[in-house]
Amino acid sequence: MVYEFFGLTDTGRLRSNNEDAIACEPEIGLAVLADGMGGYQAGEVASAMATGTVSSALGSWLLTHGPKTSSREIGLAMRLSVDRANLVIHQAAIDNSEFTGMGTTLVVAVFSGGRALVGHVGDSRCYRWRDGRLEQLTRDHSLLQEQVDAGVLSPQQAELAPHRNLVTRALGVETEVVLDVGEHAVLPGDLYLLCSDGLTGMLKDDQIQHILMTERDLDRAVDRLITGANEEGGVDNISVVLARVEAG
């Protein structure tokens, strides 16, 4: 398999600073995206620490162990790198009063051979577009998702519900964090989308799917997704990473 990556992050229309961060390492099939939260500029610190630590630690491990490593070992390496990032962020918040309460969501994907391992914490997401169908591969760690799962809200009601950004899991908040990891078979022609809620809070799935169906170039597709989110209001920072799979 051959993987092509492209990603961008945008401040949006209403925010003065960008608390999102992305890191892409196409040569080793690694993509990381984080959406920070906290006091003044603390969210920027948390997301930068998360993407920097995970891409460095996990990237070094992938370079050392190569693509023939088992999925179990890759999943363990993902969890260890996220544990390290969590402790770095948590300790920084303890050491600096300006960073008190900071944290970040995270979604990380490793593409190796014919598989994709996707891990996430919080409500940053990963989607797969295949054969004209968009499928969400991650499940939000959020109060809203819990209400949908419990039957308190329907998916349609959830689209209009307030407090959509209340997450139930994030890096840096506590000394331990649980990374959900899923393994997915990869096929030529697949397109994977990692994004922050600045995109999904503005564009519905059918709008995202239309752009992915009608735009072949990854850079143009990313630009159209971000532009679309801004045209719908751009109330939050917007980050998008696309990874396309072709036969080698």
What's the helix and strand layout?
Layout: E1 2-10, E2 20-25, E3 30-37, H1 42-65, H2 71-95, E4 103-112, E5 115-121, E6 125-130, E7 133-136, H3 143-149, H4 155-158, E8 180-185, E9 191-195, H5 197-200, H6 205-214, H7 218-231, E10 238-246
Antiparallel strand pairs: 1-10, 2-3, 3-4, 4-5, 5-8, 6-7, 6-9, 9-10
- Output the helix-strand order: EEEHHEEEEHHEEHHHE
Q: Which radius of gyration do the C-alpha atoms yield?
A: 17 Å
* Mean pLDDT across every amino acid position: 93
Strand content: 25-35%
The main sheet comes to: 5 strands, antiparallel
Number of strands: 10
Overall 3D form: globular
Physical arrangement of strands within the biggest beta sheet: 1-10-9-6-7
The residue fraction in helices comes out at 25-40%
End-to-end Cα distance: 5 Å
Number of helices: 7
Structural class: alpha+beta
Low-confidence stretches: none
Describe the structure.
- With 248 residues, the chain is an alpha+beta fold.
- Helices cover 35% and strands 28% of the residues.
- It contains 7 helices and 10 strands.
- It is globular, with a radius of gyration of 17 Å.
- The mean pLDDT is 93.
